[in-house]
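Final report, section 2: Outcomes. Of the targets proposed, Protein-glutamate methylesterase/protein-glutamine glutaminase is the one most frequently requested by collaborating groups, and we therefore present its record in full.
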Amino acid sequence: MPGGTRAVVADDSHFMRSVISDILEEGGIEVATEARNGREAVDAVLAHEPDVVTMDVEMPEMNGIEATEMIMAERPTPVLMLSAHTDENADVTFEALDKGAVDFFRKPGGEVSMEMSRLKDQLVDIVTSVAKVDVGKRGTRSSPSRAGGPASGAGTESRSYVGDPTLVIGSSTGGPKMVEQVMAELPIEADLRVLIVQHMPEGFTGRFSERIDNRSDYDVREAADGARLAGGEALVAAGDRHMSVKNYRNGRLRVKLTRDPPENSVRPAVDVTMRTAAAVVDDPLVGVILTGMGGDGADGVVRMKDAGARIIAQDEATSAVYGMPKRAVETGCVDSVLPIDEIPNGILDTITTEVTS
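The predicted structure is given below as tokens.
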């Protein structure tokens, strides 16, 4: 299949390798070979030079983290982690992202073949998107520092900010490290209320919020139904729940979590959070769309712009997948298109009333 996407499938389960390979082949993705452990995965990448690797997290001889790190050192290739839904696997999965993996897909449990079949379109879509990522160009730091000083590009300037600003961040494929980087650079003095919607399955968003909390001066937690949000705090939409803004009073907002049908084939959807924030929040609003496949967030930025919000989109050069930002830009509602390193300062610019040296 000349010119098509070629994959290496790495998993210690013969059954799972067969299921994944069949799904990819049926979706038009050529499986160059299969690997039973991380060592075989590295050898397969060097021998077959695939476009993408689907990598199991836990494997004998060499696990998925070690294999990903070695692949990035020897022949950088987009890696999609396949992770089971456990707290331990969530930790390991995020460690793999730190080592260079692009994204992850939650392995099904229970009746594996039936559930994987149900998820086959999603798996094919994400493998196809991850395969297009230029892993050599992504310049985000692996361990963002806490935001102890001025945001990137702010120099020694002192800023005064508008009162009670709310920030909504949406991202998908390649987004976790980007979100962490942006949050690490936002000073607590800005007193933002931050709503984060990252396309991520249930069981991983709690760990994701802990990682952001550790790297940011903001108090970051996974959203719960009815949770309230004040300045200097951030909520991460819980996996498999839409997060809507229910009400807003005196600089504090309250969210509602629902299992309403997916929008843009995803839940949580950025559109839901942006749309409800636009309808409810009457203080300054900022919307940010980061890397991701699909068009989620495009309708949301239109609603936010109509409500007077300022909108920022990540540029193509630093996006792992220029899908969501591109669709947002195409609406004509984006005020600034910025590389990831400039987005924190871009956010601050939208809420700054005065700058002094």
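Residues 171 and 198 are 5 Å apart (CA to CA).
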